[in-house]
Amino acid sequence: MKPPQDFKSKIIKGGLFLTIRQIVTTFLSLLSALVIARILGPQVYGIVATSLGIFYFFKWTGRIGMHIYVVRTPDFNKVEIEQILTFYNTVGVGACLLLWLAAPIFGSWTGKAEVTQILRCLIPAIWLDMIGGLSTGLLERELRFAEVGLIDAVAQITNYSVSIPLVLVGWGYWGPTTGYFLQFLVFAILSYYNAPIKWCWRWNWKTVQPALHYGLTYYSSNWIFTFKSLTVPLIISRLGGMEVAGITSVSIRIVQQLSLLRQIIGRMSISVMAKFITELSKIRRVITKGMAYQALVMAPVCATFSCFSAWIIPTFFGEQWLSSNQLFPLIALAASVGAIFDLHNSTLYAAGHNSEVAFRNLGYVGSLWLGSLIFTPMWGVLGYGAAEIFALPSYFLIHRSLVNFCGSPNYWNAFWIILASIPALIGAIWLPPLLSFSLLIISYLILLVLNESVRSLLLELWSMIRKRKKLS
Asked: Is the N or C terminus of the chain more exposed, i.e. has fewer CB atoms within 10 Å?
């Protein structure tokens, strides 16, 4: 069944707006990380990153997946969405109060009282995110990705425009703390303005139950994966200290910002895949091509940064961050491999195979935590990177689940694209920047000469870009 033209135009328009938003916020995020990390230094930045890791874990937990119920349920009435908001208000405020009281536990575990203070300031933002996320779910349901992208962009710009000046005038860790709280406040206000929901003060269990059941089923699988955000706060900071935690967090942050298009595809993929979930052969073709595109937008970009990181990091971040030059390639390689399985997850989520995704996430996070416990005491700042590589075999679990659902996609193009980046990506740790970059160019030239399939993929991508330019 061919999708209607209006559907295609919404996807293209939404993807364009999300891309523009991602470019703008990526630049500002890198600028923010650069200024904040350089001024605060690894020790204080480690305290901020540890606190944010704990906060984001509870923030992701707060929605309980009920916003996805709004996105994916074919029909629901106005009363349901109002009752979900009422449930969020009741449970959200109660959960925030409990977390505020429990914040000293995390300060004690990390050995830093500042973690308690930062968490107590950020905890109300969990409730704000629940409210904003529900309205955003309504927008994504209608494929209004342009509004979603604009809301996210304005909220993040608010964060950076506040946190950077405050750090510059000497507020220390209170600068980014204030910026992040205002980001979620603006996000909630703008989301609610674009998709308002009537407030009620009593919620009915029978009305909320379907959404809660669906949300818990969906989120139980994703919730396991969010434990990854606790790796640095609970393991790396404890075993390696706040300086190692700060360096690790900056390396992760850089990889995340370089994952520009990966995040856009992931944001749209569940909504899009749900439209074609019964066409199994088409799903396989989309995943095959999507894996190659994900590899293209991840591996060469990360490898290029790795080649010049020996210049970029000390120049912009300062000499005290230079050891992240050795950690970055390991995290980037793991992220490049992980990117090609994003569409696997989205497809299985759209098909309702949440428990299988949960099993895979448990294997991945368990491997990552085990690797961190083993390698951090042995190798210090490189321990987390080694743990990321150690966790890669767990992706076989998600591959097996996808094969059982719709058959196996073709991995070869994605495999060769990532393989061609590895010599420069890892070699940059020891080789001079220009030599490692030359190695990267040579590797991809050899790949293009020998592999006709990858050449065709690049030509097709270039053709799509030129056609899009002509249409605009």
From this structure: C
Q: HSE (CB half, 13 Å, CA atoms) of 179?
A: 26
Question: Would residue 76 be called left, alpha or beta, if left means φ above 0 and alpha means ψ between -120 and 50 degrees?
Answer: beta
Nearest to residue 16, comparing CAs of 148, 138, 137, 108?
148
Q: Which residues neighbour 470 within 8 Å (Cβ) at sequence distance 6 or greater?
A: none
Least confident residue range of 53-57, 97-101, 186-190, 218-222: 218-222
Distance, in Å, from the CA atom of 349 to the CA atom of 340, rounded to the nearest integer, reads 16
Query: Which pLDDT does position 12 carry in this prediction?
Result: 54
99: Cβ contacts below 8 Å, ≥ 6 apart: 58, 119, 123, 126
Q: What is the pLDDT of residues 404-447, one digit of tens each?
A: 998 999 999 999 999 999 999 999 988 999 999 999 999 999 99
Per domain, the residue ranges of the chain are: 1-219, 259-472
Chain centroid to Cα 142, Å, comes to 23
Q: Which of 31-35, 267-271, 461-465 has the highest mean pLDDT?
A: 31-35
Average pLDDT over residues 265-281: 64
CA atoms of 463 and 467, how far apart (whole Å):
6
* Alpha helices (H) along 195-259: 205-226, 237-240, 242-258
Cβ atoms of 343 and 267 closer than 8 Å: no
| Average model confidence (pLDDT) across the chain | 86
| Lookup: tokens for 401 | 């689940």
List all residues 6 or more positions away from 57 whose beta carbon is below 8 Å from its beta carbon: 226, 227, 229, 230
Q: Exposure of 65 by Cβ count < 10 A (0-12 exposed, 13-18 middle, 19+ buried)?
A: buried
- Retrieve residue 67's tokens: 């916003």
Structure tokens at 358: 């949960």
Q: How many CB atoms lie within 10 A of CB 466?
A: 10
Which of 104-118, 235-249, 335-349, 370-384 is predicted least confidently?
Answer: 335-349
CA terminus-to-terminus distance, the chain: 27
pTM, entire model: 0.84
Taking residue 91's Cβ as centre, other Cβ atoms within 10 Å add up to: 17
